[in-house]
Amino acid sequence: MQHTLRTPVTFTGVGLHSGKPVRMVIRPAAAGSGIWFKRIDIALGDTMIPALYHAAEQTPLCTRLVNAAGVSVSTVEHVMAALAGCGVHNALIEIDGPEAPILDGSAAPFVRGIMARGLRGQLEPILAYQVLRPVTVERDGARATLAPADRLIIEFHIDFADAAIGRQSKRLDMGNGSFARELCDSRTFCRYDDVQRMHENGLGLGGTLENAVVVDGDTILTPGGLRHRDEAVRHKMLDALGDLALAGGPLLGHYTGERAGHTLTNALLRALFAAPDAVRPVLCDPSISARLPGKGLALHEIPQVA
Protein backbone atom coordinates (compact mmCIF):
# COMPACT_ATOMS: atom_id res chain seq x y z
CA MET A 1 0.00 0.00 0.00
CA GLN A 2 1.33 3.43 -1.00
CA HIS A 3 1.14 6.42 1.34
CA THR A 4 0.72 10.17 1.11
CA LEU A 5 0.24 12.87 3.73
CA ARG A 6 -3.14 13.33 5.37
CA THR A 7 -2.96 17.12 5.21
CA PRO A 8 -0.44 19.68 3.89
CA VAL A 9 2.53 20.77 6.00
CA THR A 10 4.38 24.08 5.59
CA PHE A 11 8.06 24.89 6.18
CA THR A 12 9.67 28.34 6.06
CA GLY A 13 13.33 29.24 6.26
CA VAL A 14 16.23 30.33 4.09
CA GLY A 15 18.13 28.59 1.32
CA LEU A 16 21.56 27.34 2.38
CA HIS A 17 23.38 28.77 -0.63
CA SER A 18 21.17 31.74 -1.56
CA GLY A 19 20.41 32.92 1.96
CA LYS A 20 16.99 34.04 0.70
CA PRO A 21 13.67 33.34 2.47
CA VAL A 22 11.67 30.44 1.07
CA ARG A 23 8.30 28.86 1.82
CA MET A 24 7.66 25.22 1.00
CA VAL A 25 4.40 23.27 1.33
CA ILE A 26 4.26 19.47 1.07
CA ARG A 27 0.79 18.44 -0.10
CA PRO A 28 -0.93 15.06 -0.46
CA ALA A 29 -0.91 13.58 -3.96
CA ALA A 30 -2.76 10.84 -5.82
CA ALA A 31 -1.60 7.23 -5.74
CA GLY A 32 1.00 6.47 -8.37
CA SER A 33 1.93 10.10 -8.95
CA GLY A 34 5.29 9.98 -7.15
CA ILE A 35 7.10 13.03 -5.78
CA TRP A 36 7.02 16.33 -7.67
CA PHE A 37 8.22 19.86 -6.97
CA LYS A 38 6.27 22.87 -8.24
CA ARG A 39 7.82 26.36 -8.49
CA ILE A 40 4.87 28.58 -7.55
CA ASP A 41 6.97 31.76 -7.92
CA ILE A 42 7.08 31.26 -11.71
CA ALA A 43 3.91 32.30 -13.52
CA LEU A 44 4.46 30.97 -17.04
CA GLY A 45 5.68 27.75 -18.60
CA ASP A 46 6.36 24.33 -17.13
CA THR A 47 6.89 24.73 -13.40
CA MET A 48 6.63 21.04 -12.46
CA ILE A 49 9.89 19.25 -11.65
CA PRO A 50 10.01 15.46 -11.16
CA ALA A 51 11.97 14.10 -8.20
CA LEU A 52 13.80 11.56 -10.38
CA TYR A 53 17.49 10.77 -10.85
CA HIS A 54 17.56 11.68 -14.55
CA ALA A 55 16.36 15.20 -13.70
CA ALA A 56 19.35 15.80 -11.39
CA GLU A 57 22.22 18.02 -12.46
CA GLN A 58 25.80 17.21 -11.54
CA THR A 59 26.47 19.52 -8.58
CA PRO A 60 28.96 18.70 -5.80
CA LEU A 61 27.42 20.73 -2.94
CA CYS A 62 23.76 19.74 -3.21
CA THR A 63 21.21 17.93 -5.35
CA ARG A 64 19.54 20.13 -7.98
CA LEU A 65 16.61 18.98 -10.09
CA VAL A 66 15.87 20.57 -13.46
CA ASN A 67 12.92 20.02 -15.81
CA ALA A 68 12.97 20.14 -19.61
CA ALA A 69 12.12 23.86 -19.56
CA GLY A 70 15.17 24.64 -17.42
CA VAL A 71 13.18 25.32 -14.23
CA SER A 72 15.09 24.04 -11.21
CA VAL A 73 14.98 23.45 -7.47
CA SER A 74 18.08 22.69 -5.44
CA THR A 75 19.14 21.34 -2.04
CA VAL A 76 16.30 18.82 -2.15
CA GLU A 77 18.24 15.96 -0.52
CA HIS A 78 17.05 16.55 3.06
CA VAL A 79 13.34 16.75 2.27
CA MET A 80 13.67 13.76 -0.09
CA ALA A 81 15.36 11.79 2.70
CA ALA A 82 12.54 12.73 5.07
CA LEU A 83 9.85 11.60 2.63
CA ALA A 84 11.63 8.31 1.95
CA GLY A 85 12.41 7.76 5.63
CA CYS A 86 8.78 8.33 6.59
CA GLY A 87 7.47 6.05 3.85
CA VAL A 88 5.78 8.77 1.76
CA HIS A 89 5.45 7.67 -1.87
CA ASN A 90 3.30 10.46 -3.34
CA ALA A 91 3.54 14.20 -2.65
CA LEU A 92 3.39 17.58 -4.38
CA ILE A 93 5.95 20.02 -2.98
CA GLU A 94 5.12 23.64 -3.73
CA ILE A 95 8.03 26.03 -3.30
CA ASP A 96 8.31 29.78 -3.91
CA GLY A 97 12.00 29.88 -4.76
CA PRO A 98 14.85 27.95 -6.37
CA GLU A 99 16.11 26.26 -3.20
CA ALA A 100 14.55 24.23 -0.38
CA PRO A 101 14.87 25.71 3.12
CA ILE A 102 17.87 24.46 5.09
CA LEU A 103 16.09 24.76 8.49
CA ASP A 104 18.48 23.31 11.10
CA GLY A 105 20.69 21.57 8.54
CA SER A 106 19.18 18.14 9.12
CA ALA A 107 16.01 16.32 8.06
CA ALA A 108 14.47 16.21 11.55
CA PRO A 109 12.16 19.24 11.12
CA PHE A 110 10.81 17.73 7.89
CA VAL A 111 10.31 14.33 9.52
CA ARG A 112 8.52 15.78 12.54
CA GLY A 113 6.29 17.92 10.33
CA ILE A 114 5.35 15.00 8.09
CA MET A 115 4.68 12.61 10.96
CA ALA A 116 2.69 15.20 12.91
CA ARG A 117 0.30 15.41 9.95
CA GLY A 118 0.12 11.63 9.66
CA LEU A 119 0.03 9.41 6.60
CA ARG A 120 -2.92 8.20 4.56
CA GLY A 121 -2.83 4.75 2.98
CA GLN A 122 -3.59 4.40 -0.75
CA LEU A 123 -4.78 1.16 -2.32
CA GLU A 124 -2.19 1.03 -5.08
CA PRO A 125 0.76 -1.29 -4.28
CA ILE A 126 4.26 0.10 -3.79
CA LEU A 127 6.60 -0.25 -6.77
CA ALA A 128 10.16 -0.91 -5.59
CA TYR A 129 13.37 -1.55 -7.49
CA GLN A 130 15.34 -4.68 -6.67
CA VAL A 131 19.09 -4.62 -7.31
CA LEU A 132 20.10 -7.84 -9.12
CA ARG A 133 23.88 -7.52 -9.38
CA PRO A 134 26.56 -5.19 -8.03
CA VAL A 135 27.04 -1.85 -9.80
CA THR A 136 29.93 0.46 -8.88
CA VAL A 137 31.02 3.92 -9.95
CA GLU A 138 34.33 5.56 -9.00
CA ARG A 139 35.66 9.06 -9.35
CA ASP A 140 38.64 10.93 -7.85
CA GLY A 141 39.26 8.36 -5.13
CA ALA A 142 35.58 8.05 -4.17
CA ARG A 143 33.40 5.01 -4.77
CA ALA A 144 29.68 4.15 -4.58
CA THR A 145 28.20 0.67 -4.97
CA LEU A 146 24.76 -0.91 -5.03
CA ALA A 147 24.65 -4.66 -4.43
CA PRO A 148 21.76 -7.11 -4.04
CA ALA A 149 19.86 -7.21 -0.74
CA ASP A 150 16.27 -7.92 0.31
CA ARG A 151 15.93 -4.45 1.89
CA LEU A 152 17.66 -1.07 1.75
CA ILE A 153 20.95 -1.03 3.63
CA ILE A 154 23.12 2.08 3.69
CA GLU A 155 26.80 1.86 4.58
CA PHE A 156 29.17 4.79 4.53
CA HIS A 157 32.87 5.44 5.13
CA ILE A 158 34.46 8.90 5.36
CA ASP A 159 38.00 10.09 6.00
CA PHE A 160 38.72 13.77 6.69
CA ALA A 161 42.01 15.38 7.65
CA ASP A 162 40.29 17.42 10.36
CA ALA A 163 40.66 15.59 13.67
CA ALA A 164 37.15 16.71 14.68
CA ILE A 165 35.83 14.34 11.98
CA GLY A 166 38.62 11.93 11.03
CA ARG A 167 37.63 8.44 9.91
CA GLN A 168 34.06 7.35 10.50
CA SER A 169 32.03 4.35 9.32
CA LYS A 170 28.44 3.25 9.86
CA ARG A 171 26.01 0.69 8.44
CA LEU A 172 22.24 0.63 8.94
CA ASP A 173 19.25 -1.39 7.82
CA MET A 174 16.90 1.41 6.80
CA GLY A 175 13.73 -0.53 7.64
CA ASN A 176 11.48 -0.11 10.66
CA GLY A 177 11.92 3.65 10.99
CA SER A 178 15.67 3.52 11.62
CA PHE A 179 16.23 6.62 9.47
CA ALA A 180 14.12 8.77 11.77
CA ARG A 181 15.62 7.33 14.94
CA GLU A 182 19.27 7.16 13.90
CA LEU A 183 19.99 9.63 11.10
CA CYS A 184 17.39 12.36 10.60
CA ASP A 185 18.75 14.80 13.20
CA SER A 186 22.33 14.76 11.87
CA ARG A 187 23.29 18.11 10.36
CA THR A 188 25.23 19.08 7.30
CA PHE A 189 28.88 19.75 8.06
CA CYS A 190 31.79 21.60 6.55
CA ARG A 191 35.31 22.80 7.24
CA TYR A 192 35.79 26.43 8.23
CA ASP A 193 38.10 26.98 5.26
CA ASP A 194 35.35 25.68 2.96
CA VAL A 195 32.89 28.19 4.42
CA GLN A 196 35.23 31.03 3.56
CA ARG A 197 35.72 29.68 0.04
CA MET A 198 31.97 29.26 -0.55
CA HIS A 199 31.24 32.80 0.60
CA GLU A 200 33.87 34.13 -1.78
CA ASN A 201 32.03 32.33 -4.61
CA GLY A 202 28.56 33.52 -3.57
CA LEU A 203 27.55 30.17 -2.04
CA GLY A 204 26.59 29.09 1.46
CA LEU A 205 25.14 32.54 2.15
CA GLY A 206 22.38 31.07 4.33
CA GLY A 207 24.74 28.90 6.31
CA THR A 208 25.25 29.70 10.00
CA LEU A 209 26.56 27.93 13.08
CA GLU A 210 22.89 27.19 13.84
CA ASN A 211 22.26 25.10 10.71
CA ALA A 212 25.59 23.40 10.09
CA VAL A 213 28.37 21.70 11.98
CA VAL A 214 31.50 23.74 11.22
CA VAL A 215 34.88 22.25 12.12
CA ASP A 216 38.36 23.73 12.18
CA GLY A 217 41.03 21.11 12.75
CA ASP A 218 40.17 19.42 16.04
CA THR A 219 37.65 22.09 17.07
CA ILE A 220 33.86 22.09 16.65
CA LEU A 221 32.89 25.74 16.13
CA THR A 222 29.13 25.13 16.26
CA PRO A 223 27.66 26.00 19.69
CA GLY A 224 26.55 22.95 21.62
CA GLY A 225 28.89 20.65 19.73
CA LEU A 226 27.77 17.43 18.09
CA ARG A 227 24.45 15.65 18.37
CA HIS A 228 26.24 12.34 17.76
CA ARG A 229 29.90 11.47 18.06
CA ASP A 230 29.73 10.30 14.44
CA GLU A 231 27.29 12.96 13.23
CA ALA A 232 29.29 13.54 10.05
CA VAL A 233 28.98 10.02 8.66
CA ARG A 234 25.35 9.88 9.77
CA HIS A 235 24.65 13.01 7.72
CA LYS A 236 26.37 11.49 4.70
CA MET A 237 24.00 8.52 5.06
CA LEU A 238 21.06 10.93 5.31
CA ASP A 239 22.15 12.60 2.08
CA ALA A 240 22.56 9.20 0.43
CA LEU A 241 19.01 8.19 1.31
CA GLY A 242 17.68 11.44 -0.16
CA ASP A 243 19.67 10.98 -3.35
CA LEU A 244 18.68 7.30 -3.66
CA ALA A 245 15.01 8.30 -3.28
CA LEU A 246 15.32 9.79 -6.77
CA ALA A 247 15.09 6.23 -8.09
CA GLY A 248 11.34 6.83 -8.18
CA GLY A 249 10.54 4.16 -5.63
CA PRO A 250 12.16 2.32 -2.72
CA LEU A 251 15.37 0.45 -3.52
CA LEU A 252 16.01 -3.11 -2.36
CA GLY A 253 19.79 -3.14 -2.27
CA HIS A 254 22.92 -2.52 -0.24
CA TYR A 255 24.42 0.93 -0.89
CA THR A 256 28.04 1.53 0.11
CA GLY A 257 29.57 4.98 -0.15
CA GLU A 258 33.28 5.56 0.31
CA ARG A 259 33.97 9.31 0.36
CA ALA A 260 30.99 9.60 -2.00
CA GLY A 261 28.76 12.63 -2.49
CA HIS A 262 25.68 13.76 -4.36
CA THR A 263 27.26 13.60 -7.81
CA LEU A 264 28.60 10.09 -7.37
CA THR A 265 25.36 8.70 -5.90
CA ASN A 266 23.43 10.14 -8.83
CA ALA A 267 25.95 8.64 -11.24
CA LEU A 268 25.40 5.30 -9.50
CA LEU A 269 21.64 5.46 -10.06
CA ARG A 270 22.19 6.33 -13.72
CA ALA A 271 24.55 3.37 -14.10
CA LEU A 272 22.11 1.05 -12.32
CA PHE A 273 19.14 1.90 -14.53
CA ALA A 274 21.26 1.94 -17.69
CA ALA A 275 22.14 -1.73 -17.15
CA PRO A 276 19.05 -3.85 -17.98
CA ASP A 277 20.32 -6.85 -16.02
CA ALA A 278 21.15 -4.89 -12.85
CA VAL A 279 17.71 -3.93 -11.55
CA ARG A 280 14.07 -4.88 -11.91
CA PRO A 281 10.78 -3.35 -10.72
CA VAL A 282 8.82 -5.36 -8.15
CA LEU A 283 5.37 -4.82 -6.69
CA CYS A 284 5.73 -5.05 -2.93
CA ASP A 285 3.76 -7.72 -1.13
CA PRO A 286 3.23 -7.39 2.66
CA SER A 287 6.52 -9.14 3.47
CA ILE A 288 8.54 -6.73 1.31
CA SER A 289 6.57 -3.70 2.50
CA ALA A 290 7.40 -4.60 6.10
CA ARG A 291 11.12 -4.10 5.35
CA LEU A 292 10.80 -0.66 3.72
CA PRO A 293 11.92 2.65 5.31
CA GLY A 294 9.23 4.28 7.43
CA LYS A 295 7.36 1.11 8.25
CA GLY A 296 6.41 1.10 11.92
CA LEU A 297 7.68 4.63 12.58
CA ALA A 298 5.94 6.50 15.41
CA LEU A 299 6.08 10.27 16.06
CA HIS A 300 7.44 9.87 19.59
CA GLU A 301 10.54 8.08 18.24
CA ILE A 302 11.77 11.11 16.29
CA PRO A 303 14.63 12.93 18.08
CA GLN A 304 13.45 16.13 19.75
CA VAL A 305 16.07 18.60 18.59
CA ALA A 306 16.23 22.01 16.96
> In sequence order, what are the helices and strands, one letter per element?
EEEEEEEEHEHEEEEEEHEHEEHEHEH
Total of domains: 1
Proper CATH architecture: 2-Layer Sandwich
**Radius of gyration in whole Å, from Cα?**
18 Å
Fold-level CATH name: lpxc deacetylase, domain 1
Largest sheet: 7 strands, mixed
Which CATH class applies here? Alpha Beta
Which bin fits the share of residues in helices?
10-25%
Q: Taking all residues together, what is the mean pLDDT?
A: 92
Distance between the termini: 32 Å
Total of DSSP H or I helical runs spanning 4+ residues: 7
* CATH homologous superfamily identity: lpxc deacetylase, domain 2
Morphology call: globular
Would you report the number of β strands?
Answer: 20
Question: What do you see in this structure?
Answer:
The protein contains 7 helices and 20 strands. It is an alpha+beta fold and 306 residues long. The protein has one domain: lpxc deacetylase, domain 2 (lpxc deacetylase, domain 1). Helix 1 crosses helix 2 and helix 1 packs across helix 5. The longest helix is centred in the last third of the chain and has 14 residues. The chain is globular, with a radius of gyration of 18 Å.
